[in-house]
Amino acid sequence: MTDLPTPLSLDRAGPAPLHMQLAGQLRGAALSGALPAGTRLPGTRTLARDLGVTRGVVEAAYALLSADGTLEAEVGRGTRVAAGLVKAERMTEENTQEPAFPLPGWFLPRPLPHAARQDTRPGLHFRSGVTSAAMLDRRAWARAWGAAARTELPGDYADAAGLLELRAAVAAFIGRSRGLAASADTLLLTSGTLSSVTLIARAILPAGATVLYENPGYRSGRAVLEDAGHRLLPLAVDEQGPVVEHLPPAHAAYVTPSHQFPLGGRMSLARRLALLEWARAHDALILEDDYDGEFRYDVPPLPPLASLGGGGRVLYLGTFSKVLSPAVRTGFIVAAPPLIQALGRERQLSDGGHASALQHALLHLLSSGEVDRHVRRARRWHGQVRAALTEELAPLSPLATLGGIEAGLHVCLHLAPPLDAEEVSARLAAQGVYAETLQTFTFSGEPRNALVLGYGGLTVREARTGAQKLTRVIRTLAAEKSAGERPGPTAPATVPPRL
């Protein structure tokens, strides 16, 4: 072998071409210092003979390394390792290995918000924020993607706000399903509610804005606003949704009036009007998140804040994640045209907008009436699951009472003392059934003593099974606590012995 201070070994059975293998090994040796700057490499014929390859392999490797600056070739001096190459990290004096990927000292990694962490434990999960695609018409889904595939691809970038025809179709759907008048000019497509909050945080709110935020509330949205540098003030909620009396000044308020997340209350009309008046008096915006407004049970819909004369002060956020599936990755914002233009600019700079094929598939589903038919099927499906869940849990009163059952895809089970939600959740998990408490939804004050029971991803049988196990846990724990509070048998009095 040629007298080089580093070994070379080529694998003829490997996936990489021989000249790429040779170039990679020589580059690595140069960057690590094994081949110092100025080291002269053997001629192509000599190295090819020693490695048992054709001369063309070595010539191609040298050409690659000369092109990227690893090697320098001069007439009369041969091919040498270039000067000034940055060396990779080497062993320290303590003989410990430096990190494989050294990072800047100012970089501070941040953990995922609790809601974004996937719980992969096997078992039955009462998970909020998810839905089932079991009632989706697979043939209609396939036809929609077939229609999208037959659509001619554009040669340039599309409108970041979304395909004009799709925005018009979504606006018409909102009018049918939620009673909100909208048009293509007042609507922008996003990748879901979280995408909508991110765009608003960056494009609409001023730097360091003060935002009233429901407490407890939507965890991931809270993380987005805080990461953007905005200041959040807790907005109290009760069985009628956000409490709007004596609100302090702020730039915006984030609310879920149709089905408060996670407690489930519906904001009364009087409170809706009062919140709009607060926004007018304090020159503020309202972020109205109607994340599951299609699902109502035994109650009439309440008018969206955006339909009550809010003018340009309400940004209405919706999503198809609950209507169809989170995999569709499509939400929308309805707002005044100047706000839509600002949001469109931000979407253009962030990701350029939705993929064309997805937009055409969704357009086909909407224009064919399949989304409306699917909503009717989904409402019946989820209504049956909800009925099974409430039927099983209703007998627990007064130990536990259900809240937020009139709408949406989750309920809140409020526990009476001395039951403790964290203890109930832990006991339930030991049986393979998982339900969250309000601990991580709450960012100010003590969390309420309740469990959040999401049923959007469950079948009727799963809902009954989970509810029955939950019932047994609650009754057992209540009996244990009751027994522990009873006074024990009285010990006999000690009689002193006679003298």
TrEMBL record:
Region (Disordered): 480-499
A Pfam family hit: GntR
CDD domains in the cross-refs: AAT_like, WHTH_GntR
PROSITE patterns in alphabetical order: HTH_GNTR
Keywords of the record: Aminotransferase, DNA-binding, Pyridoxal phosphate, Transcription, Transcription regulation, Transferase
Source species, domain of life: Bacteria
Domain HTH gntR-type span(s) in chain numbering: 16-84
SMART domains noted in UniProt: HTH_GNTR
GO molecular function: DNA binding; DNA-binding transcription factor activity; pyridoxal phosphate binding; transaminase activity
Entry's family note: In the C-terminal section; belongs to the class-I pyridoxal-phosphate-dependent aminotransferase family.
Protein name (record): GntR family transcriptional regulator / MocR family aminotransferase
Organism: Deinococcus reticulitermitis
